[in-house]
Specification:
Elements: E1 8-17, H1 28-37, E2 43-44, E3 50-54, H2 61-81, E4 85-87, H3 105-114, H4 116-119, E5 125-131, H5 135-145, H6 149-156, E6 161-162, E7 165-166, H7 172-177, H8 192-205, E8 218-220, E9 226-233, H9 238-260, H10 270-283, E10 288-291, E11 296-299, H11 300-318, H12 321-334, H13 337-348, H14 351-362
Helix pairs in contact: 1-2, 2-9, 5-9, 6-10, 9-11, 9-12, 11-12, 13-14
Length: 366
């Protein structure tokens, strides 16, 4: 197969904050209007403290990286024009006074149905879309990709501080996100019919309002011909987002090759995958990881090595081996978002230093 034919696109969610205090501010509609006037389309998230960008569909990672950078730069400027600050952070490190829900009929219905879950939803993730020929193939590919979800999470963890306090987790967003009844590790699906039956049951039970509320960390998109991988915190920098997108794209390509040669996806019990998730959310890149395929504990950086080894043919075909190797070396040297946040906090004990770090990282390289 032609690896370059497998497309990729990225959605990034950002927090809008007060430039002086770092507190979340409810200005998404104003920032979106300013962005629209500048030719940039933003999506409004559940809370009024968030906005989301969406890239075009790409086949070249360099062009994806350029667009990610220009979007962050332009939206940061639109936020500034509305006396707000754009932060690439998965949860607010300061103490939020409130997360007011965006005033649309759908979001009001979600708020009425799910109560406090909706009002504590100031969580920002990154969603990578990989082009698929059809939904059946997308679901089969998801069975291969799910084994690597904890590794993606550990790599991009960017939420160790919440309400002015160290949480003890590299990705506290991941923990909070999984409170939703349809969120977290996806089941193993035998077929499209198996998936549809599960979703229909969830709608009938009321634990989701519609198919768009399927929040599993992999899902076939309801809007695009893609497989959407949603496990990650919003990475701190565009370079880390581009790295994540490249790894996910290569994983999907590798899965498609396995499907073409009738190599089965690994069967990972839900309990094992949840345990691997917990390790990833708790330790990020600092501690041990659980390899869900071999069910062995290894150092977190070792899981990254195993992932790159697994993806080596696809990365070579994409011409992305050097980019991935260099980017991973930089993350392991300088730390991911969670590690850098904690270093900033421990230096002087000030949350303001964490906010400054996040502000600068958001547009680093843009």
């Amino acid at each position: 197969m032609d690896a370059h034919a497998v497309t990729v696109g990225v959605e990034e969610e950002f927090l809008l904050t007060d430039p002086g205090t770092g507190m979340p501010v409810a200005k998404n509609t104003a920032v979106a209007r300013t962005a629209a006037d500048a030719g940039v389309e933003l999506q409004l998230e559940l809370t009024r403290c968030q906005v989301e960008t969406s890239t075009s569909v790409h086949t070249e990672i360099e062009k994806l990286l350029d667009e990610l950078g220009s979007l962050r730069r332009d939206v940061a400027e639109c936020a500034r024009q509305n006396d707000a600050q754009l932060l690439a952070v998965a949860i607010p490190p300061t103490v939020p006074q409130d997360f007011p829900v965006t005033d649309t009929p759908r979001y009001r219905r979600i708020s009425d149905t799910f109560g406090m879950l909706a009002h504590e939803q100031g969580l920002c993730g990154c969603h990578v879309h990989v082009g698929m020929p059809d939904r059946e193939t997308a679901l089969q590919v998801s069975n291969y990709v799910r084994a690597w979800l904890p590794t993606y999470l550990a790599l991009t963890a960017n939420s160790p501080i919440y309400r002015g306090t160290e949480t003890g987790y590299a990705s506290w967003r991941s923990v909070l996100w999984r409170r939703w009844p349809s969120a977290g590790p996806p089941p193993y699906f035998e077929s499209e019919a198996d998936y549809d039956a599960m979703v229909e049951m969830m709608v009938a039970s009321g634990c989701i309002l519609d198919r768009k509320m399927v929040y599993w960390d992999i899902r076939p998109s309801e809007s695009f011909p893609t497989l959407e991988i949603r496990v990650s915190d919003i990475p701190a920098t565009v370079a880390e987002t581009a790295l994540l997108a490249t790894l996910i794209r290569a994983t999907a390509i590798t899965a498609l090759e396995s499907l073409a040669h009738n190599r089965p996806a690994p069967t990972i019990p839900d309990e094992v995958l949840r345990a691997a998730y917990w390790n990833a959310a708790r330790f990020g890149l600092d501690g041990n990881a659980l390899d869900p395929i071999e069910r062995r504990v290894v150092a977190a950086p070792e899981m990254l090595t195993r992932l790159v080894t697994h993806l080596h043919p696809a990365l070579d075909e994409l011409g992305a081996t050097e980019l991935v190797t260099d980017s991973l070396a930089q993350v392991l040297r300088d730390g991911n978002g969670a590690q850098r946040q904690l270093t900033a906090l421990h230096t002087n004990g000030r949350i303001a230093d964490v906010v400054t770090l996040l502000r600068d990282a958001t547009v680093q390289g843009c």
